[in-house]
Write a structure and sequence with these properties.
This protein is an all-alpha fold. The chain has one domain (3-103). 83% of the residues lie in helices and 0% in strands. The protein contains four helices and no strands.
């Protein structure tokens, strides 16, 4: 979400430092449902509770960001670990296919 889009939802301008905090919370906080208009949700939180409340959400957003980074790393490690097995399996399948070609 762009700063201008958020300001349009609010009906007022905010400074860039505030927007950077809002954007971080918007991107990572687990309570904002991506299926249910998260842009509208964060604007509503700002309107109803203000910046102090959003600043209080930063710790939860940071934990979620760390979790997502760890999950991406685990998935990359899993894919790297599976590669030798997959390569060997493909080699076996190709060898079998060649064997049937020769017999056929």
């Amino acid at each position: 979400m762009m700063k201008e889009e958020f300001e349009k939802r609010l009906g007022k301008e905010i400074d860039i430092e505030e927007y950077e905090v809002i954007e971080f919370v918007y991107m990572f906080h687990p309570s904002l449902d991506v299926k249910d208009d998260p842009k509208g949700q964060i604007a509503k939180v700002y309107k109803e509770f203000g910046m102090p409340f959003i600043r209080g959400m930063v710790a939860g957003a940071r934990l979620q960001q760390e979790y997502e980074e760890k999950l991406r790393q685990i998935q990359a490690d899993r894919e790297a670990a599976a590669k030798p097995f997959n390569d060997a399996l493909n080699e076996l399948c190709n060898a079998r296919a060649r064997m049937y070609e020769v017999k056929g």
